[in-house]
Amino acid sequence: MNTPSLADLRASLPGLKLLTEAAELEHYGRDWTRRWTPAPLAIALPASAEEVQALVRWANAAGVAVVPSGGRTGLSGGAVAANGELVISLERMNRVLGFDAVDRTLTVQPGIALEAVHNAARGHGLIYPVDFGARGSCQIGGNIATNAGGIRVIRYGNTRNWIAGLKVVTGAGELLDLNRGLIKNATGYDLRHLFIGSEGTLGIVVEATLSLTDAPPPSQVLLFAVPHMDALMQVYATCRARLSLSAFEFFTDRALHHVAAHGAQRPFGEDSPYYVVTEFDAADEAAQAQALAVFEHCLEQGWVSDGVISQSEAQARSLWRLREGITESLAPHKPYKNDISVRISVVPAFLQAMQALLTREYPAFDVVWFGHIGDGNLHINIVKPAELDYPAFIAECERVTELMCEVLQQHGGSISAEHGIGLVKKPYLASARSAEEIALMRGIRAVLDPNGVMNPGKLF
């Protein structure tokens, strides 16, 4: 890529907000990975789809790479700009553009925060059900680019399930209007789904039409202390059979240690090696009584050793903080993260295999597990020992990740469940995709981004 004069860009887009100060370059040039030194050419903050088109066309003409940027809460290096790229931040494109009461859709710009989407949907008596801990800072465009999942996938599915239409600017600067909110549209390839989960390698989302749904009935949160790993799936099977679940999450004692050190209150007098937090519909006394019966059954079977059911919204938030606060509590330690998935039916065997691998390969490391048991997604965070320098720590973790990929292949799993590939997982893509699939993906990218300006170096 060339190093063009920014004066050319300013001349071609005189109304564009362009940032070049060192602190701004550092802020916008990185995501939560913190493993790469940001070094973008500049930060462009367009205010319209037309400006995004003009920026991409300029990048093609000037031979400049582009990195699309949202809330930069990603954990795989997908929004890192470390090689003189032009960062296109969508944060100024953050408005709700329209609501359709009949279709029950909300049309938004890509820079709107997920929490703002939630608030807008509630204002119309509906919900946008995709949710996770970074809701206040992540942006809907980034959620689409990574097909974000979160804590309620067990009921509502991933972001993909809730995208009724998209407007995107391709890597060639063309504006595409995809699906237009249609429920049925049997007119060939659904290009909308190519861009969902593409990590900014095919184009930039400039508008999204989101499907909304009815708010669920009142719910309660139930926290279990689980004495051994084998019991996790027994508890899940019991809860799924007897309760109407919207979430089922687990975390380990080491996760609780970090969250408690970050200010959360420990839920029980005695620690347990594993914990489960589950949310379920509790619209009436019968549903609440059923939850108590589930707890008593699990207690009798020895699958849980203690438990608590939320009695107020404040207590429910407090219990959820134990799970949702894990990533934030670990952030100061700059952990090495694995985000992996298998089919739900394979989870018990996979948990055992992973426990054996991690115990063997990380005997002296602080290993923090948590994840979405209900959809087969596990997060494994490795905390760097104080005495080990960072490059050596990363090298050791990458060695173990190679071994983890072998276990994943044996169990038909994926190296990235919801964080994307980015820079972090790029070496391991072949563990989850065949050579033929990767070749086809490269071919698709070449069509939509013929000059290779869109987020180069990511994914492949």
From TrEMBL:
Keywords: FAD, Flavoprotein, Oxidoreductase. Gene3D superfamilies: 3.30.465.10, 3.30.70.2190, 3.30.70.2740, Uridine Diphospho-n-acetylenolpyruvylglucosamine Reductase, domain 2, Vanillyl-alcohol Oxidase, Chain A, domain 4. The keyword Magnesium does not apply. Signal peptide: none annotated. Residues 36-215 form the FAD-binding PCMH-type domain. InterPro entries: FAD-bd_oxidored_4_C, FAD-bd_PCMH, FAD-bd_PCMH-like_sf, FAD-bd_PCMH_sub1, FAD-bd_PCMH_sub2, FAD-linked_Oxase-like_C, FAD-oxidored/transferase_4, Oxid_FAD_bind_N. Its cofactor is FAD. The keyword Glycoprotein does not apply. Belongs to the FAD-binding oxidoreductase/transferase type 4 family. This is FAD-binding oxidoreductase. It comes from Tahibacter harae.
